[in-house]
Design a protein that fits this description.
Elements lengths: L1 E6 L5 H12 L3 E2 L1 H11 L3 H8 L5 H8 L13 H19 L2 E4 L3 H4 L6 E7 L2 H12 L3 H23 L11 E4 H25 L1
Helix pairs in contact: 1-9, 2-3, 2-5, 4-5, 7-8
Length: 204
């Protein structure tokens, strides 16, 4: 079973993914993807993160280049495409190893051809997210709203450009949950239950 988590900024999606992975005894992939790509290419994690946030459309290139091997380390390929290719390779390779929970990085799109993937989108009302971000970063309400809007816009542009799907729309995911209203326990339980049921029904 592979579960991918996409999320609005401040909705608690990262924590949901981590809790799901812990309860199911699965590997959890999030920022460690950035660290792997940085180590492989000899870039700093900060540079990799910066490149990953650019809506370059290079994931389509990455998917095409993956079968050729060593594309990520080919010095003739632009850095942005090498980062995208290395990330795609890492996600595909880890998924091939077995169960796992992947947060963000267009993992739902990268793994779309597999029949053991369940994709989830976590969201919450703005008021709930603002309170979370204010506490997390110790910033004002105005600053939190601005940061949320900027981050969500960047995530949407990145996802829409790189996948040609629409970020945060019901057509792009198997399940969408309001973590703000459900709370973490119910959200995690819903993800686990629905993922198992969906994948079991696919086997029938």
């Amino acid at each position: 079973m592979i579960i991918t988590i996409s999320r609005q900024f401040g909705s608690g999606g990262n924590r949901v993914g981590r809790l799901v992975a812990e309860q199911l005894g699965m590997p959890f992939y999030d920022k460690n993807i950035i660290n792997h790509v940085a180590d492989k290419l000899g870039f700093s994690p900060e540079y990799v993160k910066q490149v990953q946030e650019k809506p370059t459309g290079s994931f389509l290139f990455s998917m095409a280049m993956y079968s050729y091997g060593n594309a990520a380390t080919d010095g003739l390929i632009p850095a942005e495409m090498r980062v995208s290719t290395a990330q795609t390779e890492f996600i595909l390779e880890k998924a091939a190893e077995g169960n796992g929970v992947f947060v963000g990085r267009c993992s739902d799109y990268i793994l779309r051809e597999r029949d053991d993937v369940f994709s989830v989108f976590i969201y919450a009302e703005m008021e709930h997210r603002v309170q979370n971000i204010m506490k997390r970063y110790n910033i004002s309400e105005k600053e939190a709203i601005k940061l949320i809007q900027q981050t969500d816009k960047r995530r949407a542009m990145f996802y829409n450009t790189n996948t040609h799907h629409r970020w945060g729309t019901k057509e792009s995911y198997h399940l969408m949950l309001d973590c703000g209203k459900l709370g973490f326990d119910a959200t995690v339980e819903a993800v686990e239950y629905c993922a198992r049921l969906y994948l079991e029904n696919k086997k029938k």
